[in-house]
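ok posting inputs for the pyridoxal-5'-phosphate job
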Amino acid sequence: MDSEQLREYGHRLIDFIADYYKTIESFPVLSQVQPGYLHKLLPDIAPDHPETMDQVLDDVRAKILPGVTHWQSPSFFAYYPANSSVAGFLGDMLSAGLGIMGFSWITSPAATELEMIVLDWLAKLLNLPDQFLSKGNGGGVIQGSTSEAILVVLIAARNKVLRNVGQNALEKLVVYSSDQTHSAFQKTCQIVGIHPENCRVLETDASTNYALRPGLLQEAVSQDLEAGLIPFFLCATVGTTSSAAIDPLAELGKIANSNDMWFHVDAAYAGSACICPEYRQYIDGVETTDSFSMSAHKWFLTNFDCSLLWVKDQDSLTEALSTNPEYLKNKASQANLVVDFKDWQIPLGRSFRSLKLWMVLRLYGSEALKNYIRNHIKLAKDFEQLVSEDPNFEIVTPRIFSLVCFRLVPAKNDEKKCNNQNRKLQDAVNSSGKLFISHTALSGKIVLRCAIGAPLTEEKHVKEAWNVIQDEASFLLHK
Ligand code: PLP
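and the output
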């Protein structure tokens, strides 16, 4: 790393990125390229000799940016947001600059200790029970993704139950979730070796706004016990991916606790909102859980990747995941004086991710972060109002956070035609390049999703998005 070269190139790259943000609204939000476009534009082999920064940046402008979907555009309303911010971006840059590998405390004490401190800060902002704080046997850790967070707690839970009931009982272990739980859970069950026939995917419907019904869980657990199976893991969600549904944690927790099951809550998106006192109620019951995760890289101004996982019992993680090869031995670890986060995650290597979260919390402060969330929720409320005033549309599920689920209403109760029209509307809106929305299916209905949460989104972008949707809809309906 040549300092002067870094300084020169760094200035130019920061200028490039700053200009990108200044002009971000001039790009089509959803990339309009065809599959394989880049192969036609770039050489088949890597260069033998150094090229200049100008050559690289020219290629970024001409060849890469057309193939970029602009997640930071103020008119990006698809999926859930993936926030970038000045603080998050600079924190990530600092982490890259320091270039450390913080798998054990000794490999960079500040990385481990800052992570513990910042996760405690956030646990306190969320008003999580004290058992999730690092001062006792609990604590938080940064994972790369919610999938990894769920994977490590599922492994810990499996390890714990098999130690009690015998290592040969894997085929008897049963997990519970709802049909709205993110597919990440199914993937982790596949990885962990839970038998597919022992994955209870409990049905939800509009009567509970797609939240998991505790009665249904109780019934399934009782049946499994009667059949000699071992219920051992429940994954609930606060803010499901399709419609931001909220599973009732307190009631589900009672069932999980009384059956000695590990209870995990995935609040990847909606967890951020729960730092606001008025939204904290949606994680009431979190005291009954064993682990809780939310992704700061979604709606908390922290650049990807930064999924936060808290557990009450850190031993359950380390008992399942720790290894102690000679080449990693050191006095602090041997004396049990420190946390080694390598034993709380799948990979060994880990970057200094807490820096970006620390910088977000310090450069914005929790009051500004709460207002940031509130502003998006207000914009979503405005959008919801606009939709509900148009007789061609309906709101499909009640909005709680910043996601609005809506659709064109079916003409003459023809649901099949209605689904087709909603798909066509989505395609038309997205090919306009003016905004990007995604869709889901709820009870067989194709539903359009407008998820507000990009840092640059303002009222005018939401209004403009609605105008485009209305225009495309009226064109479609009068064709
Ligand atoms: N859980 C929920 C509720 C989500 O919305 C998502 C992604 O949007 C995920 C899990 C998957 O997250 P990751 O990509 O971090 O594994």
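notes: The pocket of pyridoxal-5'-phosphate is lined by residues 80, 145-147, 182, 184, 237, 239-241, 266, 268-269, 295, 307 (CB under 6 Å). The first strand starts at residue 139 and ends at 143.
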